[in-house]
Amino acid sequence: MAFSMTTTKCPFLNKFSLSFLNHYSNVLLNNFLNKCPHMNKVRLLSSDFPIEPQNHPMEGDVSQCPFFDIFKPTLQKASDNVVQDICEVKNMANVQNEFHYERFFIDQIMKKKKDHSYRVFKKVARDAKNFPYANEFSNVNDDDHHHHQRNDENNKRIQVWCSNDYMGITTHPDVKQAIIDAVEKYGSGSGGTRNISGNTPCHYELEEELARLHEKESALIFTSCFVANDSTLYTLGKLLPGCHIFSDAGNHASMIQGIRNSGATKHIFRSCDPVHLEELLKNVDYSLPKIVAFETVHSMSGDIAPVEVLCDVAHRYNALTFIDEVHAVGLYGEHGAGIGQRDGVVDKMDIISGTLGKAYGNVGGYIAGNRNFVDMIRSYAAGFIFTTSLPPTVLKGAITAIKILKGPEGQMLRKMHQEKVSYFKQCLKKYGIPQLDSKSHIIPIPIGNPYLSNWICNELMSQYGHYVQAINYPTVRKGEERLRIAPSPIHSYEMIDRFIQDFVQVYKRAGLFNIKQNWTSPTCSYCNKLWKIGLDNVPCGMDKKCPLYVSC
Predict the structure, then answer these.
(1) 3.30.190.20, 3.40.640.10, 3.20.20.70, 3.40.50.1820: which CATH number matches 171-406?
(2) Would you say the pTM of this structure is higher than 0.90?
(3) Could you give the CA distance from residue 166 to residue 327 in angstroms, rounded to a whole number?
(4) Which residue from 62, 357, 475, 536 has the fewest beta carbons nearer than 10 Å?
(5) Which residues form the Aminotransferase class I/classII large domain (predicted)?
(6) Enzyme catalytic residues
(7) According to the model, what pLDDT value does residue 119 have?
(8) Are 184 and 399 in contact (CB under 8 A)?
(9) Per-domain residue ranges of the chain
(10) What are the tens digits of pLDDT across the range 134-164?
(11) What is the pLDDT of residue 527?
């Protein structure tokens, strides 16, 4: 059906474009034909009612039109833009340039699989009575894809060498009993945010314990240390007027994210380099608020920052210090408060962040500092305000762990820990296996190739029952892939000797005593199928059980 130019002599129809009329003629006819004298005369019809070529102007004033009369209170002419939009509506099914979301998701996954940085999680059930043992359920060739439930007849007994449960405190009988007692007394969850029914005496007890540990006025607990770092640095950078944040190049992603999202001016100084930090601080107005943020123990290199020197440089230029002790609390210092306590410089550390999820064997994070600072973060940090608080089970478990590691048992464990770490490093050196120059309990072994680091870990697990985790991009830069080993005080010297012997064999088979980098294999490290170089859709064989397989 089509409208002619003569048709639009009607004052009502003349309000619309021909394109609109042609698109919506049926609606107009069905609803208004009997109300409009002009439309009745002209009889705008489709093929059954041909349009007459004559002009049929409507007599009289527009106000006499029954249509305008009836709809006068509500009718308004649409703007030209709206009319044009209506006319240009298209059927989305015919749009050829639509965005293919599923294809995009697959492409992003393929990028990770092609450069061997795709992560395949090991399924490991730790043994609560026999640290550092666990049962491993990662058999990719198992036809049962729902075998996540424990089946003691179908698992592999392994030793864990990569856990952040640095002291084995998760299996301590007192910690486990504290958690059991808490769930019997309080139930499983907290019930809400700290502001809405989720604020318990246990929260205050833990915060007071943490403040005493770090010799600060106050402390605040978060659901994780990622949230603690992110929220605190974001809030500081956002609220402090004209704030500049100076960040160590080796800082954790949680710190980087908080700094970046705050919008504060950021400066990156070379990791653990006070000279470079001072060069950057000199160029910023002394009167402007500044924060220097760094970690004491770097989780992937094992470096320990020169805390006192960095603090002195920061304070010289009127900057606050924000110091992450995540990989140090429980492990260093007389009472386990970290590197700051070990070095006697806690008073120079303005803000300390730490975790309950590593040496303290639970989950959660925290900050400690002066009372007004902590109260400001409590009042403004979205990551603290708008989330369910930690449950009493976690709080009581953490309180118990902190007290254990503060006391004589903790001091004994720290001494044993350092002895085991030192022995492990000496064994690696004896066999000529390179290691990064770590001054901490973290032992990084450089590999330099993501495929090879994964292969070594899989061999150690499948052939010898040792669980070591490959560390690949983006956790470390490309070309700096490594193995990260963290022996605990519970690992025996016999365990270390056995591990070293097995590791040397795998290291030899990998050819790493002669070839350090750019080593590749023609087979997939998971399904052992030939590597299909050049195929975009299937990087390794056609075995759909392989976790590296992508169905396109």
Answers:
(1) 3.40.640.10
(2) no
(3) 9
(4) 536
(5) 160-501
(6) 358
(7) 86
(8) no
(9) 7-91, 171-406
(10) 999 876 454 454 444 555 556 789 999 999 9
(11) 55
